[in-house]
Amino acid sequence: MRSIKSDQQLDSVGEVIASRRLRRLRDGVASEVTVLIGKPQPFEDGGGHYCPYQIVGVGSQAVRWVAGVDAVQALILVAHMIGTELWSYVHRDGEMLRWGDTDNDELGFPLWGDEPNDHKEM
Predict the structure, then answer these.
(1) Of 27, 28, 5, 95, which is closest to residue 55 (Cα–Cα)?
(2) How many domains does the chain have?
(3) Does residue 4 sit within a domain?
(4) How many C-beta atoms surround the C-beta of residue 80 within 10 A?
(5) Tens-place pLDDT, residues 35-63
(6) What pTM was estimated for this model as a whole?
(7) What is the pLDDT of residue 47?
(8) 42 falls within a domain
């Protein structure tokens, strides 16, 4: 089991527990974007859990992590963070991302809403 301090940077997601492949269309050229989610791990200092993730093929491609009070909350929060990041690539940067055979911008990740039960999916 790998553990980090709450202010540490990661260079890999570690053990990948889930992934999703998306299609990126830019200037008429298609490429692949891969979302990787690592196994949640406890912080070294005992202050909850973190869940690493990486979006490869768009953006900075940096390994990031989201913290929760336990592994389940970290997993839930990482899905929201990924959805929000993908949303920003589409709506801020003008990226065209697609999941599966669809032609809409539904990517299957939740987005933060104003209210706890008011969320959209990306």
Answers:
(1) 95
(2) 1
(3) no
(4) 17
(5) 999 999 998 888 899 999 999 999 899 99
(6) 0.84
(7) 83
(8) yes
